[in-house]
């Protein structure tokens, strides 16, 4: 699987400011390999890089991001893009004029030999169809002081001050936030035994 090294930009690029939120290396979160909170300045990109045998779910929290592969796609805050690298691809993602903040979520591919594909869920709210049976993503938004009751699962709250896990129950934040819930088939994969 081609998952960029923790904290390392793609070859030939300065790269984004990246903070790893989760990176279980023991298979305890099933297909979920890593989540990084990336911040890119205006016009900054990752640099052309390769992926294979991995799905990358990009949750755009702020700004805009241009995906450069195939027909390409312009992403805005609230959009969720699903990149299935399958047998392999080379691509880049470049921030718009206001920069970008994006959660890059890497999952072990459910179809590593399939051709690469890319899809965008615009202004995602509620359940996002990832097209795989072992991982589900729910996205919600919380305004300052608003209470959001997310479904059960691995709950993450992304606010201006970073991304933090939430232990359950209602989420109430002092500022605007995006609430993510991952429901994962956490059975240990064969490679983790």
TrEMBL record:
<dbReference type="InterPro" id="IPR011051">
    <property type="entry name" value="RmlC_Cupin_sf"/>
</dbReference>
<feature type="domain" description="Pirin N-terminal">
    <location>
        <begin position="37"/>
        <end position="99"/>
    </location>
</feature>
<protein>
    <submittedName>
        <fullName>Pirin family protein</fullName>
    </submittedName>
</protein>
<dbReference type="InterPro" id="IPR014710">
    <property type="entry name" value="RmlC-like_jellyroll"/>
</dbReference>
<dbReference type="InterPro" id="IPR003829">
    <property type="entry name" value="Pirin_N_dom"/>
</dbReference>
<dbReference type="InterPro" id="IPR012093">
    <property type="entry name" value="Pirin"/>
</dbReference>
<dbReference type="Pfam" id="PF02678">
    <property type="entry name" value="Pirin"/>
</dbReference>
<comment type="similarity">
    <text>Belongs to the pirin family.</text>
</comment>
């Amino acid at each position: 699987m081609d998952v960029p090294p923790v904290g390392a930009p793609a070859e030939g690029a300065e790269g984004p400011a990246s903070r790893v939120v989760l990176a279980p290396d023991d298979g305890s979160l099933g297909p979920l390999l890593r989540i990084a909170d990336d911040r890119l300045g205006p016009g900054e990109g990752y640099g052309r890089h390769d992926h294979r045998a991995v799905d990358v779910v990009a949750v755009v929290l702020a700004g805009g991001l241009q995906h450069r592969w195939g027909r390409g796609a312009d992403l805005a805050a609230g959009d969720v893009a699903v990149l299935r690298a399958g047998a392999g691809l080379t691509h880049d993602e470049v921030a718009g004029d206001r920069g970008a903040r994006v959660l890059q979520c890497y999952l072990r591919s459910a179809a590593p030999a399939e051709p690469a594909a890319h899809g965008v869920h615009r202004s995602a709210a509620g359940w996002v169809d990832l097209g795989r049976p072992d991982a589900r993503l729910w996205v919600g938004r919380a305004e300052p002081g608003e209470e959001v009751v997310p479904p059960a699962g691995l709950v993450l709250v992304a606010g201006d001050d970073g991304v933090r896990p939430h232990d359950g129950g209602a989420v109430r934040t002092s500022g605007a936030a995006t609430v993510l819930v991952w429901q994962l088939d956490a059975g240990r994969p064969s490679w983790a035994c």
